[in-house]
Amino acid sequence: MREIAGTICLTLALLGCHGGSVPDTGKGHNTPTESVAFEGKSRAVEKISSVAVGLFADMTETSGVRFTYDTGRAAQLFTILESVGGGVGLLDFDNDGDLDLFFPGGGSLSGSPPVTLHGQYVRLFRNDGDWRFQDVTESCGLAELAFYSHGCAVGDYDADGDPDLFVAGYHDGRLLQNQAGRFVDVTAQSGLKFPSWNVNGAWLDYDNDGRMDLFVLTYCDWSTSQIERCLNDRGERDTCGPTRCPGQVDQLFRQTENGSFEDVTEQVGLSAIAARGLGVLVADFNEDGYSDIFVTNDVHPNNLWLGSADGRFEDVGLLWGVALSPAGEEQGSMGVDGGDFDGDGWLDLWYTNFSEEDNSLYRNLTGTGFLDATTTTRLAGPSWRWVGFGTHFIDFDSDGWQDFVIANGHVQFSDSKAPYLQPAQLFRNREGRRFEEVSAKGGSYFASPHAGRGLACGDLDNDGGTDLVVVHQDAPVALLRNTHPASKWIRVVLRGQKSNVEAVGAKVVLKSSGRSLARWVRSGSGYLSSSDPRILFPLETESPATVVVTWPSRRTEVFEKLTPGQTHLLREGDGQPE
Amino acid sequence: MASQSETNLGEIGPRYVSATRPGRYRRRQLVIVISLVAVIVGALGSSLVWLRRRPSPLEPLLATARVLLEEPADDPSERQDQARAAANRIGQYLVASGADVVGANLLLAAAVALRGDAAKAEQAVNAIDLTQAQAADLTTAAKIFFQVGAFVTADKLISVALERDSKSSTTPSSSRSGTAHSRERTLRTACLIRYDLGRYDDVLSHCRELAQLATRDPHPWVVIASVYEERGEWLNALTAYREVLPRVVGEDASYRMTLISFLLYTGQVDEARREFDRLQTSPLAANVLQQDPLLVPRLLYSEARYSEAKPLVEQLLQSDESSADAWLLLGRILMEEGDFVGAADALERHVLVDPLSHEGFYVLAQASQRAGRIERAQETLKTQRELSKIKVQLFRLERRATTRPNDRATRQELISIYENIGLTSRAEYWRRSLESLSEIPTQIQPPPKP
Question: By the CB < 8 Å criterion, does B384 face chain A?
């Protein structure tokens, strides 16, 4: 390229080539205990109404969910703290069969350096069905919980059958134990200590002892004294970038037999790298039975920590080709997810990047590495202008091919090249070969720009379609109903016995009509958020379906005659050995 | 009081009427004399104006010299002849005491520079009161000094030229006036000189102004696209380049090829394919594609048509083993085909040709690891990280330098790093940019009076 537009060409262009110029003329309720029939709405009505509203209908206004994540922007200090944003956790805290919503609150800043941080209260909304939610923050014991928070990780760490919460924040973090629908802050007795700026967490069982451990994602070493005057490319004061903020070491806490946690960061090898983490995905990329951890970093090579039998992790991000851009350059990477975009049964990797960088899609080479597939699938280009944060693999058109959703939004308020508010995007997967942007058909939410951050996916109305919850910077969250739910579907919830209770790391394969759809139980994923842990499969026929589960214990079981339109609880050991 | 009565036009008549006869006579004589003097002075004045306006017999000498110097030939000997001929005419003009001494001296200095004695010519320029020179002559001289490598003088001259005709018409070229045309020429030359000095913000400014004046001219957009390309602002580069093709009259194959390259770089594969299909309808397609023989394999690679891309790259490598880009593309294709040993071998060739390719070392590390060459993979990775750090640093410095035209320290740092890693051409580029700073006037001021 540089040769093409070199000086010679310029000389010709500027001085001599006048001959080439033109002359100067002028979203009911199901309990995830065995099989419960779906009570849905008329598909025909859904389909007809969807034509007018697009692929997603904005239900925020009538949902009763009124929540705005507070970045602290009002103080006009333009700190990097404010740029990270908040997420959302989808969890069935009351075990009534539907997903409820938990939001970390963010916070505000005041005073002169060192500035004082004031945490904003977290909020919990109970799903009462039919797209109505009730604020139950106080009745659930969370009314006093306020610290500068970002992300949350949902997981049944005590294996008592209900989901617990870890909330990450600036030099803080809270372990909230769900005690029959009421949350109790057990951080002090848990053994968890947070010396760093935490942005999110992920539950996993790295040592396969059956107990859930906690990975804590850290961003960078910024202090409240570090109030700088940073200028954007227009010379105006704007949000400070990450490069003056050294990266931090992420933490791994191992759960002991008595339910407390011990910091094993150093002994497992994670202390070798200090980076600016913003996204985390736990899955078993090489199918060796040990959870791996992929971390997206901001202007630093991403890490792919491969788990092993001895409990230690080795970063192979560079050698596996997912640490840098295909051209070998560091990226500003944020949201992340894993799925099987090309239907080959291997877990592919997807993450969002800063503007003037394409988002990145990597094809898994049978667990030996990855190859970039961004360009060949036509995902290069359409997101170049946008700063990508929340994202997810989502089969929004229920055709079995995993599509993408992205929440975009700039960190700078007046960058000359891209606006602060940016449109969210939808990409439809065309049979694993290419993606087509269909944001224009997404509905009203996708027609207007936002400062998007956390994004979670889940079937909030249990109708067989994956819905969305998006968190914005200093603006109300959005609840979006999928208007194209699958007409035939099954949903599975995995419960580990020998394996960890959440079955993080398990692979689930639906075998139906000669087609195999592979999905995985992941942890982390998206951006600062926790999505629906249940796995939804669209079906092509009304015939009972068969699902093959490979548990983290490496046991593979077949679950047959699963009735469509129901949520099935699959317990490890209850299936037939394959 | 007297002056009052004299300025009161109503009293003029009665006073004359009441005047005595001899007095009236003297006054009549006086009026006649004054009138004659006025007529003579008027006639002399008109004659002088006429004389000044009449083309001097010496003017063709200067005009011919201007034409000779305006478009110097590419051939060195022919250029020498041009310079000599121009110098002769200017000499005659000066000996015969032509009126435009400043313009003649400036053009003479330019001719001397073109003849090969740039140093002497620069000295001559320093002695000229440039504020008195015409913008057109300043532009001609600036272009010549730029062509002979006297960048500092070239920039100095074009700065004055830009200042001189900045207040001229910004009328679009559809109703172009002489001053607008002169402004266009000045802007074109300014873009050229400042692009080479890495003053990209200035170049963008000049080219945008030029695009407004010459609305149907594709070339300002070509330069704008090049500046964005240099800055790594690919989407802006593509947007600018999309303005080029609609303005090209006649054969546009080479422009379309460049557009396809931009499209591929920004991942717009489908649009690249459409443009390529259009390109193929051009009778010049084959010739133009020879300029970038990797364009077709790159397009096929982007479309995941690896088996079609591979033979084209291999064929290219048979004729040119030194193509680093071809080795890299072959390595990538073989990786996609699962031939990791072959890929690693190809990529080894790539880094041999381009030892500063951090991209190549990154892909080589992956290929080596999958080919079982673990030790080599680790070693390669180490090199890649080192190169990457340097390149990130260089990218930041270059960006800073182009947005801060007077930042000496950054330019000096760039020169030093490029020299250390052996990229002398880039070092030289930034040295030129640095040297030009010492002479760039921030404001045009008249020379001190003797």
Answer: yes
Residues within 8 A of B (CB atoms), A 319-348 only: 319-321, 324, 326-330
| Token pair recorded at residue A173 | 């973090």
| B358 interfaces chain A, CB cutoff of 8 Å | yes
Q: What is the mean pLDDT of residues B68-93?
A: 88
Q: How far apart are CA B210 and CA B183, in angstroms?
A: 8
At residue A22, the pLDDT reads: 34
CA distance A350 to A34: 33
Instruction: Identify whether A114 is preceded by a cis peptide bond (ω within 30 of 0).
Output: yes
Q: Give the tens place of pLDDT for each residue, A512-537.
A: 878 899 999 999 999 999 999 999 99
Partner-chain contact B192 A20, CB within 8 Å: no
- Cα A244 to Cα A89: distance, rounded to the nearest angstrom: 31
Angle between the N-to-C axes of helices B358-370 and B324-336, in degrees from 0 to 180, rounded to the nearest 10:
30
Q: Is the predicted pLDDT of residue B211 greater than 80, yes or no?
A: yes
**Is B174 in contact with A25 (CB distance < 8 Å)?**
yes
Q: How distant is the Cα of B377 from the closest Cα of chain A, in angstroms? A: 7
- Residues in B touching A5 (Cβ below 8 Å): 222, 225-226, 229, 258
The token pair at A577 is: 């050995």
Q: Nearest-5° angle of CA B10, CA B11, CA B15?
A: 150
* Pair A14, B207: CB distance under 8 Å: no
Is 60 exceeded by the pLDDT of residue A436?
yes
DSSP, residue by residue, B151-181: HHHHHHHHHHHHHHTTTS----GGG--HHHH
As a whole number, mean pLDDT of residues A124-132 equals: 98
pLDDT (tens digit per residue) in A271-325: 999 999 999 999 999 999 999 999 999 999 999 999 999 999 999 999 999 999 9
Mean of pLDDT over chain B: 83
Q: Which site among A21, A322, A346 would you substitute to test the B interface, given the most B Cβ atoms closer than 10 Å to its Cβ? A: A21
Mean pLDDT value across residues B403-408: 81
Whether residue A381 and residue B365 make contact (CB cut-off 8 A), yes or no, is no
B226 touching A (Cβ < 8 Å):
yes
Which secondary structure element, helix H or strand E, spans residue B253, and what is its range?
Answer: helix B253-265
- Is B218 in contact with A26 (Cβ distance < 8 A)? no
Kindly report the number of other CB atoms within 10 A of residue A260's CB atom. 14
**Band of the pLDDT at B179, cuts 50, 70, 90?**
low
- Position of tokens 């209850």? A574
For chain A, give the mean pLDDT: 91
Chain B residues whose beta carbon lies within 8 Å of the beta carbon of residue A1: 229, 261-262, 265
CA B119 – CA A415 distance, rounded (Å): 45
Residue pair A404/A391 in contact (Cβ under 8 Å)? The answer is: yes
Give A22 or B353, the one with higher predicted confidence: B353
